[in-house]
Each structure stands twice: as structure tokens, then as C-alpha cells.
Amino acid sequence: MNKRHMWNVRGPRRAVTGGVLGLVMMGGGLAGAAERTSPLGEQPLPKVQLTCVGSARTVFSPALSPSSQSGSMIFSSRYGGCLSLGGLGVSSASVSNTADSFKNYTCTDALGSPPEKVTVTWNNGETSELSLQPAEVHEESTTTTVSYTGEVVKGKFKGFSVVRSFTYLNSDFNGRCLSTSGLTETNALSFLVLARVN
């Protein structure tokens, strides 16, 4: 597995909740999360309270290609299966359509396209505003996972740490990008993890 920090070209970013990111990347779930310790054995990792799995979609206009271009994109995601500790009262969530523009993008820039400020709407109607920063890219032979870390800054679960990850098929970038139609959209498996850090 090739692991690297991401988007130096977009300026320095401060990564947060590295312990939660580690749980996501290692496939750690809720079971026993509160008992795990850091690799150095000094402090416990953040206590995962909620894990949601779902899908994310980004549509580009015009379609991306190996040549840089500018245009607009629309993001949306849904999380249909949320597991929680302590009866947090939510079971699913969605991030409604969010429009943004892009400038001088090629297909590889699609990996960094999800917005860094999003509002999550839970199944009970409550909302959480997330402030996220790019953290890491994990490259495998067939997939690439992009992770963001941050916190809930407003609404339900305010103060919780957050990891949001997106796993893409490499064929989207290696195959569809070079096709005549270009990369019109990306679809990703997405995880949303909320944790307490104290």
C-alpha cells in the first residue's frame, strides 16, 4: 500500500484526529474502539461514537480529461447504515447536492474535489456542520482512498472529531479519463466516522 500526504499544491493543511483516521484506514469499527491505544502506547485513540457507510457522487461539467479545464461540479452523498455507541439516535444521513466550481482541473484533481465544509442531515431532521481538511491518500492496485479530517463545528455532535473518506476505483481515472467522453462523474464508497477525543 502506498500512503502519502495530499495536496501540497493547495497549500499546507493541518491534519487532525489522526487516531480516528488510523481506525478507518485499518478497518477499525466500533467494537473495542474505546479500548485501543496509540502505536506508542501512550494515550488512547479517540473513542469512536458513530460509524456510517454510504456512497458519494460527483458530477463534472464539462467532463474531466488529461487536459486542464475549468467548469462546475455537483456533490451528493448518502449514508444508509450508521452504527453508534450509547444510543446517539441516528441511523442514516445525507449530504444534499452542493455545487462548486473548478479551475484548471484534470482527472487526477477529481480525487481532491469533495467540499471541505458540508452540512450532514440526519434521519431525525437534525443537522451537523462539518469543517474538514485534506489528510491522506492511500493508493492500492485497484482503488484509491482519500481521507479528510476535522470536526463538527455546529449543530448535532458539535465538538466531535470527524473522519470522512472516499474510496474510488482506479479504472475511473485510468480508463474513463482517456475515453472520448472523459470523466463525467465519480462514484465512491464513503465512510463517515465521528469520535470523542477526551
How would you describe the overall organization of this protein?
This protein is mostly beta strands and 198 residues long. It has one domain. 7% of the residues lie in helices and 54% in strands. Strands 2-3-4-5-6-7-8-9 form an eight-stranded antiparallel β-barrel. The protein starts with a strand and ends with a strand. The model is unreliable at 1-20 and 25-40 (pLDDT under 50).
What topology emerges from the helices and strands here?
Elements: E1 2-5, H1 18-25, E2 47-64, E3 69-84, E4 93-105, E5 117-122, E6 127-139, E7 143-155, E8 161-169, H2 170-174, E9 183-196
Task: Enumerate how many helices there are, as a single number.
Answer: 2
Number of strands: 9
Termini separation: 31 Å
Poorly predicted regions are: 1-20, 25-40
- Taking all Cα atoms into account, the compactness measure Rg is 17 Å
Keywords:
54% strand, single chain, disordered N terminus, eight-stranded antiparallel beta barrel, mainly beta
Q: What is the compact description of this entry?
A:
This protein has helices at 18-25, 170-174, and strands at residues 2-5, 47-64, 69-84, 93-105, 117-122, 127-139, 143-155, 161-169, 183-196. The protein starts with a strand and ends with a strand. With 198 residues, it is mostly beta strands.
